[in-house]
Amino acid sequence: NVWRFSYYCQKNGGGAFLFPYLIMLFVLGIPLYFMELQMGKVAQIGPLQAMYRLVPALGGVGLSVIITLLFIIYYYNMLISYSFFYLFASFQNPPAWGNIYCGVNLTAPVTNFTLAQKACKNYSSNFFYYNSVTLASDDLGNLGQFNWKLFLCILGSWVLLYVCTFRGIKSSGKVVYFTVLFPYAVLVILFFRAVTLPGAGSGLAHLFIPDLQKLYNPQVWLEAGTQIFYSLGLGLGCNIILASHLDPNSNIIGDGIFVALVNSGTSIFASIIVFSILGFQSELLGSSVSDIVAGPGLIFVAFASALLEMPLSPLWSVLFFLMLISLGLDSQFSAVESVVQAVYVIPKANKLPTPVVTLIICLAFLALSIFFAFGNGGYVFQLLDQFSGSFSIFIVVFFEVVGVAWVYGVRKLLTHKVAVEEGKHKIPRLTRFLEKKSVQKWWVLFWQIVYIFIAPTIMIVIFIGSLVIDFIDPLTYTVYRSFVDYLIPYPTWGFILAAVIVISTILPIPVVLIYFIVKYMIKRRRDLKYIILFRKKSVPIKNGLDGDHVVDVADSVKLVESEKYTDNGNNKNTNHTPFM
Q1: Mapping DSSP to helix (H, G, I), strand (E, B) and coil, where does residue 476 land?
Q2: From the centroid of its chain, how far is CA 429?
Q3: CA 241 to CA 244: how far, in whole Å?
Q4: Is residue 574 over pLDDT 60?
Q5: C-alpha distances out from residue 7 to 87, 297, 553, Å
Q6: Helix 3-11, helix 252-285: angle, nearest 10
Q7: Which residues contact 277 (CB under 8 A, 6 or more apart)?
Q8: How far is Cα 51 from Cα 67, in angstroms, rounded to an integer?
Q9: SS3 118
Q10: What is the mean pLDDT of residues 283-306?
Q11: Which of 136, 202, 427, 446 could form a disulfide with 480 if both were Cys (CB 3.0 to 4.6 A apart)?
Q12: How far from 150 is each of 79, 84, 157, 350, 555, CA to CA, in Å?
């Protein structure tokens, strides 16, 4: 919500990105967020098995989610590691990136406020990021030097993540009170400082005044949708695993809308701070906001450089990078919890205590993260960020929508109730209102239109448009050579590696689907319609509320596994009709 949203805004013309972002929020973000919460509430299990319980033939969606999460957890923790590096470098005056010599023409650190020396300060931040933090090599294929200081920060970030998650939801649920509230406190403090800086107006103008030509670029819409998916955790299993712990009668409608709006509001609020400071920096350097470096460097180069110009710069730097660490940890909590729950599906693994499983996962990622401490680690980070999430998340969410809307049934998902002890849970007022037959009819119809037609159509159009753009424009990454940033194409083996990453994240979906087709068409002689529409059977519970249909997932699974179907698959108790 801080660096990635601001990066996409700056990359895609500021206001031109906000327009498709807000459209995606209301057309895709809120509906799909609500859908995933309801999926978790219905399935009462983690993302690996949730789709299998709803639509077994699409059980590969859960595997794709876990593989995508493994890539994201792996590289995303580097943002916490970089933030640790800058945090430690902030405990001096000026911070370490303000004490870099600017070349042969300057023989002393920058201390004055002349234009040349302000430009030197920007150079010094760039130099610090590439020559002290990442020790950047010439390109992706050059391993470069090993940075032991960065590795210690990587070690510290994984240790901290383990301490926060070793007891699962019990430990992370308590830590989150700090990791959520502290960033808001810092953002409010930084807001009043940022908007009063000279030049802040030019940064805000870049943020809120759109470049309409950018709206014709499908890549802008893809990245707007991707950002919505990332910030709301869509397609990453986080919402499903958290919703599976919810009170059976919790108000996920009101909570879902509230969380989605606050989430996007936080993104825009944080971008006001970032662009105010970028406007301040652009005025100092005599350049435009659009010329300032993008990507992770937006925070670790441009923003760090602007912090040097503030009075008490070490204080602002410490607060800012502590905030980034808190936000990074927040993003990792539910992802790690999803992977831990997936491990328990492995036979005999469920006998291991949660702290042990979490320790094994963190140690494995720590060992793999050694590669990030080499000179090409920053380039590997770019590659993973570019290819491990965007395409796979869209495909995962697309098949979630297809499974829910066209197979499991929108009405069945929305009207589902979990069997609970009578009188134990209070039903929210909004839920009682929507359960009225006169209201429920139109409520279900609205979501059927959204999930069956609108959401899939938008995702298909954006996805095809982005493929066309990527085919026309060669994919590039940023390298650092002779103190200057360059954009160069990926090498052939880099494209192959990127293809392997993308394919590995989406391959389980067709593999599991083909498995079901082969299993039921050849071995059991079922037709294709039966295979696709086959789903876990619902079980009416005797203590249902007012005779409504109540589903208990555990009993449902036992019943389906034990039931003997007839040869023609026409079990009269199994409903195969979609949309019901």
Answers
A1: strand
A2: 32
A3: 5
A4: no
A5: 21, 9, 42
A6: 60
A7: 194, 197, 200, 203, 303, 306, 307
A8: 15
A9: helix
A10: 67
A11: 136
A12: 11, 9, 11, 35, 51
| CA angle (332, 32, 243) in 5-degree steps | 55
Helix (H) or strand (E) holding 117: helix 115-128
Strand segments (E) across 385-451: none
Lowest mean pLDDT among 351-365, 371-385, 458-472: 458-472
Task: Match 């006169």 to its residue by tokens.
Answer: 438
Residues 265 and 350: their CA atoms lie apart, in Å, by 40
DSSP per position, 192-221: HHHTTSTTHHHHHHHHHS--GGGGG-HHHH
Classify residue 362 by its DSSP letter: H
Specify the higher pLDDT residue, 154 or 199: 154
**434 is written with which tokens?**
């929507």
d(CA 136, CA 29): 37
Q: How far is CA 142 from the centre of its chain?
A: 29
Which residues are 489's β-sheet partners? 476
Whole-number Cα distances in Å, 414 to 252, 417, 435, 440: 11, 9, 10, 9
What CA–CA distance (Å, rounded) separates 350 from 352? Answer: 5
pLDDT in tens, 304-325: 777 777 778 888 889 889 888 8
Quote the DSSP letter at residue 373: G
Cα separation, 329 vs 270, in Å, equals: 17
pLDDT at residue 27 greater than cutoff 60: yes
Which residue is listed with tokens 């389906």?
560
**Helices then strands, each counted (H, E), the chain:** 26, 2
Which tokens sit at 159? Answer: 């240790």
Q: How far apart are CA 379 and CA 385, in angstroms?
A: 10
For the CA atoms of the chain, what is the radius of gyration?
25
Per-residue pLDDT tens over the stretch 130-163: 888 888 887 788 888 899 999 999 999 999 999 8
Q: What is the pLDDT of residue 157?
A: 93
| DSSP letter assigned to residue 487 | E
Tokens of 359: 């320790």
Cβ pair 3, 203 in contact under 8 A: no
Higher-pLDDT residue of 242, 116: 242
Q: Rounded mean pLDDT of the chain?
A: 75
User: Do the beta carbons of residue 90 and residue 317 sit within 8 Å?
Assistant: yes
> Residues for the chain: how many in total?
580
Please tell me whether the overall predicted TM-score, pTM, comes out greater than 0.70 for this model: yes
In 10 A of CB 457, how many CB atoms?
10
CA dihedral defined by 488, 494, 499, 500, rounded to 10 degrees? -160
End-to-end CA, the chain:
37
**Closest alpha carbon to 554 in 405, 418, 416:** 418
Selection from 194, 190, 186 nearest residue 277 by Cα: 194
